[in-house]
């Protein structure tokens, strides 16, 4: 059985084609994949950062359209509190809380769900 990280790496790169916001939840979507963030999150483009409370959220998220998710950093293969890396260096930091505040990544052939296991 593949680890969550192996399933993700096999699917990379993932191009962001659109997004939806239902504060504080964020959905990033592409062709045959989606990343749903129900946990706290922070997006850190080079030289800035924003989250669900940013007043210019829609325009900041629009800047992600066309970017590619190219890597994920986390302790271990289970992707606990991962940082997703985009092709321009932007970081998407996730801070999973206990259920019902997970993140989910739907890929062709796999669904990854992240929660805080403490």
Rg (C-alpha, Å): 13 Å
How many domains, in number, for the residues? Answer: 1
Uncertain ranges: none
Largest sheet: 5 strands, antiparallel
**N-to-C SSE string, H for helix and E for strand:** HEEEEEHEEEEE
User: What is the number of helices?
Assistant: 2
Straight-line distance between termini: 24 Å
Oligomer: single chain
Structural class call reads: mainly beta
Which percent band covers the strand fraction? 35-45%
Average pLDDT metric: 89
Helix content: 10-25%
Q: Which overall shape is indicated by the principal axes computed on the Cα atoms?
A: globular
Provide the descriptors you would attach to this structure in a database record.
single chain, 118 residues, mainly beta, five-stranded antiparallel beta sheet, globular
Brief characterization of the structure:
The chain is mainly beta. It has 2 helices and 10 strands, in the order H-E-E-E-E-E-H-E-E-E-E-E. The longest helix is centred in the first third of the chain and has 8 residues.
Give an overview in words.
By secondary structure, the protein is mainly β. The chain has one domain (4-15, 39-114). It contains two helices and ten strands, in the order αβββββαβββββ. The chain has helices at residues 4-11, 57-62; strands spanning 14-15, 18-22, 25-30, 33-37, 41-44, 68-75, 80-86, 91-94, 103-107, 110-114. The strands form two sheets. It has a five-stranded antiparallel beta sheet. Strands 2-3-4-9-10 form a five-stranded antiparallel beta sheet. The protein starts with a helix and ends with a strand.
């Amino acid at each position: 059985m593949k680890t969550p990280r192996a399933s993700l790496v096999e699917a990379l790169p993932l191009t962001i084609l659109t997004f939806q916001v239902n504060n504080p939840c964020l959905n990033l979507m592409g062709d045959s994949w989606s990343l749903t963030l129900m946990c706290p999150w922070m997006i850190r483009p080079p030289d800035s950062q924003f989250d669900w409370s940013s007043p210019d959220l829609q325009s900041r998220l629009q800047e992600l359209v066309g970017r590619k998710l190219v890597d994920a950093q986390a302790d271990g293969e289970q992707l606990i509190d991962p940082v997703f890396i985009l092709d321009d260096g932007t970081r998407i930091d996730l801070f999973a809380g206990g259920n019902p505040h997970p993140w989910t990544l739907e890929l062709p052939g796999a669904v990854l769900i992240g929660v805080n296991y403490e």
